[in-house]
């Protein structure tokens, strides 16, 4: 009998929680948007409204994550100090702009660091 009463109470609690329909407006009542910027990252905006983020790994900055809207890739510093690569994707920092190449083709160009 004791188990039956506990089951009935549990069912009432379960249906009570499930009966409230939440709208997206109620979840974000203050109208604030969620910041999707990766923590401790630097944003680069490029031509054709493209963008990505850079997140350095460790204090020595010998490797980094390049974070695109749908994926991220780990790159390592090459013998050339302004170039990071994994053998397929290459990130090239220049004085004026930054470029991302994939298999030799330019993937992102004219990228500027956002401050």
Which key features would you list for this structure?
single chain, 115 residues, alpha+beta, Lipocalin, 2 helices, 8 strands
Outline the fold blueprint.
Elements lengths: L1 H18 L4 H4 L14 E4 L5 E7 L5 E5 L4 E6 L5 E3 L3 E5 L4 E5 L2 E9 L2
Overview in brief:
The protein contains 2 helices and 8 strands; from the N terminus they run H-H-E-E-E-E-E-E-E-E.
Textual characterization of the structure:
The structure is a single chain. The protein is of the alpha+beta class and 115 residues long. The protein has a domain at 42-113: Lipocalin. It contains two helices and eight strands; from the N terminus they run ααββββββββ. It has helices at residues 2-19, 24-27, and strands at 42-45, 51-57, 63-67, 72-77, 83-85, 89-93, 98-102, 105-113. An eight-stranded antiparallel barrel has the order 1-2-3-4-5-6-7-8. A hairpin with a 2-residue loop joins β7 (98-102) and β8. The radius of gyration is 24 Å and the shape is elongated. The chain starts with a helix and ends with a strand. The mean pLDDT is 83.
